[in-house]
Design brief:
The radius of gyration is 15 Å and the shape is extended. Helices cover about 10% and strands about 0% of the residues. It has about 80 residues and is low in regular secondary structure.
Length: about 80
């Protein structure tokens, strides 16, 4: 399913800079988000970042996000 990407400027122009939230935390920090909203990650500054993402839903809205091409998976061990 194609996804349209929006620039930071488009998002700020539409929602306003006061509505942009930055989430930061120490190692081990966790948070929950609505993945149907606009979101993005900033590149790590000092070292690589390890992320554990758990996705829960009753419906997948035909997005089929659980099907991943094995060639795109990277072994980190």
């Amino acid at each position: 399913m194609p996804r349209k990407l929006h620039t930071d400027k488009e998002i700020i122009d539409y929602y306003g800079a006061d509505n942009i939230k930055t989430i930061c935390g120490e190692p081990g920090f966790g948070f929950a988000e609505d993945t149907f909203c606009f979101h993005k990650a900033a590149p790590p500054i000092n070292r690589d970042r390890l992320i554990l993402q758990i996705q829960f839903g009753i419906f997948d809205y035909q997005l089929r996000q659980d099907i991943i091409d094995p060639s795109k998976l990277k072994n980190i061990l």
